[in-house]
């Protein structure tokens, strides 16, 4: 049985198959309207989300199935009265899939290790594979390919999105350039960076880190940024983080360093005037809402594939 814990366990061929299916689902959703008839998805949320709940719940309905939403604070698991093991063992007797959006990646791994049904990572502090599959689908739609595409990620780079983008870019033979301050708060971990550099080399791609944002973005096909205030960051750190990261704000001037047809991406939520200016995210190069829509199509593909 296969889970989606991170993209590390999925081969390039696995990812390509998901993207092909996602594109087919997007083109002709009616063909798949009964693909998961009578199937049930359990959605466990420790951390709330707009896109994750809407896309998974809508996806199950469109595929003929049903989704059950649980806020973890209302579960015995959240109050410490029931173990992860017992929770997923019981759930597996009722439902066909479990999706979880959690703080700690170790809890997601424990779920997958003990579950009798497929488990999907809808975000942890380590990885956000569902988002990256939607991102890859978006880039493929816009650029016509993934291999050889130059992706520049700018800003805070010590977080789950940077690591998941590294995984996706490395597996698909892309060139990823990370632009971030030379500051441990914002640098990707060395062990993670070296691991994905090795994966990228095997696939004909590469991953670089630059501290000059213009150098990172130069001739890029895609410019990507994410929130400077990830969910684990305390609000009182905002002022100091803004000081460190403002030179890496994506502005129209920074976008001019990329290719003339470069697209701008942000996985949302976004704060205008922080990680990017309003002119960029609301401008003609922005594909952020196409990117958000593609969560629906790529996750439908994941659910079909895990239950096939």
Describe this structure in words.
This protein has a 5-stranded parallel β-sheet with strand order 7-6-5-8-9. A 4-stranded parallel β-sheet has the order 2-1-3-4, sandwiched between helices. It is built from 13 helices and 9 strands. Helix 1 packs across helix 6 (129-143), helix 1 crosses helix 13 (288-307) and helix 7 (160-171) packs parallel to helix 8 (190-202). The protein is globular and about 55 Å long. The longest helix is centred in the last third of the chain and has 20 residues, at 288-307. It has helices at 12-27, 51-62, 76-79, 84-91, 105-114, 129-143, 160-171, 190-202, 213-217, 238-245, 252-255, 278-281, 288-307, and strands at 40-45, 66-71, 97-101, 119-121, 150-154, 175-179, 206-210, 222-225, 263-266.
Sum this structure up briefly:
The protein is of the alpha/beta class and 308 residues long. It has 13 helices and nine strands. The protein has two domains: 7-127 and 295-307, Rossmann fold (3-Layer(aba) Sandwich), CATH 3.40.50.1370; 131-291, Rossmann fold (3-Layer(aba) Sandwich), CATH 3.40.50.1370.
How is this fold's topology laid out?
Elements: H1 12-27, E1 40-45, H2 51-62, E2 66-71, H3 76-79, H4 84-91, E3 97-101, H5 105-114, E4 119-121, H6 129-143, E5 150-154, H7 160-171, E6 175-179, H8 190-202, E7 206-210, H9 213-217, E8 222-225, H10 238-245, H11 252-255, E9 263-266, H12 278-281, H13 288-307
